[in-house]
Amino acid sequence: MEVTLNHLKRPEESAVDVSRRLQKRTRWGELFIQTFLFLCGAVSIFTTLGIVYELGKEALLFFQMPGVTLVEFFTQTEWQPTVGRFGVLPLVSATVVTTVIAMLVAVPFGLGSAIYLSEYASEKARKILKPALEVLAGIPTVVYGYFALTTVTPFLRIFFGEALNIYNMLSAGLTMGIMIIPLVASISEDALHAVPNSLREGAYAMGATRLETALQVVVPAALSGIIAGFILGFSRAIGETMIVAIAAGSGPNFTFNPLQSAETMTGYIARISGGDVAYDTPDYNSIFAIGLLLFGISLILNIISRRVSSRLREVYE
Amino acid sequence: MNRGVVLSETSNLSVRHQWGKFFQGLFLFSTVIGLIVLGILILTVVDKTFTLVAVTNKVDPATLADRPLEELSAEELRQILRDKLRPARLRTIERDMGPIAQMGEADLTALIMAEIVKPTTRASYPLFQSLTRRAEIEAEIRKEYPDAQIYFKAWLSWDFLQRSMATNPDLAGVRQAIKGSLLIILITILFAFPIGVGAAIYLEEYADKRNRINRILQTNIENLAGVPSIIYGILGLAVFVRALAPITSGAAFGMDAGSGRTILSGGLTMALLVLPILIISSQEALRAVPNSLREASFAMGATRWQTIWHHVLPYALPGILTGTILAVSRALGETAPLILVGASSLINKDPQSVFSFFTALPFQIYNWTVRPQPEFRNIAAAAILVLLAVLLSLNATAIVLRNRLSKRL
């Protein structure tokens, strides 16, 4: 000890003093910065708590209103809060129909596009196509809503004629599917890209064609990531607001016929809050009850998606 | 797996290759279908922005003065207003929009058009239709509106960008919407950027990943990124508009707007919305900084913060900025939260401060799209072109920035 510290010694100090001086000490400035940065991170916790608290509180008020029961909420097929009908099913059915249509578009095209980008496209083509898909993802949903109403619906009417309502779930769902393709494609592509080349080379060595390699070797190996992408797309479709608010119709309608107009959960929230909704009315509180339902569904889907992608992940070295 | 069996049992190689070609075509189609739709979408919008119109005026502007309105001086324009409008109407206008004595020529002309000339678009025909069937359309218009003027109209014009919101689609513009959007974005960046980057620095540079609190923090941020935007709108309504009304309405600062449905509420809501996206992209940028850089700095005796501030952050900055631009473009296009927070389509005064009521570009598009009169679709299309132009240039900047960054690494 004595020897190693000699060169650090000041004239009046003993070796013990030196070692104390060089000990790790609290740097208040550093600590302050670290605390501040932690608080920045904590904002996100407060956001979550805020969402849960506000949605929960107002939804509770909603369910305490005379005439509202949980059973009615989840089983009745009529939603007219102003006249005391509180069955959420018509809003849920519309959400289900539009979401299923959207997934029917987004899953095959998203996966196909991911396979093309990862397995077929040259480096040059990838460099052009990927940013192009990102542009597609960056278009505001209100623009897609406009497109659904002014272009997709008239186009579909060529096939369905008057049977297709001007506001209808089919057009909203199809447009939503197009909107979600880039999301599904991008996540699936990441998953496919992460599959090691040795697997592909092994398949080629066994005489498989490129298609057989892609569908029978690479896709199964990347399945967890692909499914996670599907689930995220699904969650996105459920929460999408502007397309359905513009193109699917305004007015709860308990139907599974995509040619008809019906209002989704998000569409209802947007319509009711569009005017200056007065606080503490059935309308106001119902926004929160439906919001809570929506938040719950999307949270569960998010969690499942992460579980799937980590559970099913096969680790290749 | 079933098809797999069939394929491998097929010994005929050419059949297998044909399948391969077929599917390759399908995959390529899946990739470009989005782009095809994007093309159709832009064509649709252009188609509706430039149309052949039949316009009738209530009062022919030629009868108002001996020269065209554009050549008159401000005083002459004011005289026309005083002559042609009833005093009561003039007083109402002055109460809403300020005294006409202080208005410039552009505003006065707009006022004369809105109050006296009152041009009305009787019919409008999309661009491509008008180009291919012009003669037919003109004959149709002549029959129905004999006194109408027929001409090509660009709904997107310099005037459109400068005019105020109005109930007449021929006279409506997006000035307040653009200003509202810009102010909202400004507040969003002001709050989201420092907090987002701060949180990312904490999670990447300080947080012990084994610590439970830090793990919860990370999971929570990833979950928040997946929460639908309308939920943020509900949160904004409950917290910023209602609970914090004394602050967001400006009452605490002596400028009471009357309620919390202000630009500040909108901006704060958007800040919460983009925060998770910003944190995650900043984290990725920080993760891309090689560890050797940090270690070298520590070895020279720098503290953790000195290392971050002088070495890590400058290196990660292009990546962080790319993420920020993408977050901003997301905030610029979001509509649902603004509906909840109380954007209003009845705004015809410029926002004076962050405590003003507001409208924003995407909200205005929504509002015009859902109106029944077809002319509103035309100005909605024009507004969409404005929004897309801004967003595409933002995205292009982000992509260029990212390419530069990947070259350097």
TrEMBL record, chain A:
Residues 92-305 form the ABC transmembrane type-1 domain. The chain crosses the membrane at residues 31-53, 91-116, 128-149, 169-192, 213-234, 284-304. Keywords: Cell membrane, Membrane, Phosphate transport, Transmembrane, Transmembrane helix, Transport. InterPro entries: MetI-like, MetI-like_sf, Phosphate_PstC. It is a multi-pass membrane protein. Belongs to the binding-protein-dependent transport system permease family. CysTW subfamily. One of its GO terms (molecular function) is phosphate transmembrane transporter activity. One of its GO terms (cellular component) is plasma membrane. It is found in: Cell membrane; Membrane. This is Phosphate transport system permease protein. Part of the binding-protein-dependent transport system for phosphate; probably responsible for the translocation of the substrate across the membrane. One of its GO terms (biological process) is phosphate ion transport. The keyword Membrane applies. PANTHER family: PHOSPHATE TRANSPORT SYSTEM PERMEASE (PTHR42727:SF1), PHOSPHATE TRANSPORT SYSTEM PERMEASE PROTEIN (PTHR42727).
Automatic annotation (TrEMBL), chain B:
This is Phosphate transport system permease protein PstA. GO terms for molecular function: phosphate transmembrane transporter activity. Its main location: membrane. Pfam families: BPD_transp_1. GO terms for cellular component: plasma membrane. PROSITE patterns: ABC_TM1 (PS50928). Keywords: Cell membrane, Membrane, Transmembrane, Transmembrane helix, Transport. It comes from Anaerolinea thermophila (strain DSM 14523 / JCM 11388 / NBRC 100420 / UNI-1). It is found in: Cell membrane. CDD domains: TM_PBP2. Residues 178-398 form the ABC transmembrane type-1 domain. InterPro entries: MetI-like, MetI-like_sf, Phosphate_PstA. The lineage of its organism: Bacteria, Bacillati, Chloroflexota, Anaerolineae, Anaerolineales. It is a multi-pass membrane protein. Belongs to the binding-protein-dependent transport system permease family. CysTW subfamily. The chain crosses the membrane at residues 26-46, 182-203, 224-243, 263-280, 312-332, 379-401. GO terms for biological process: phosphate ion transmembrane transport.
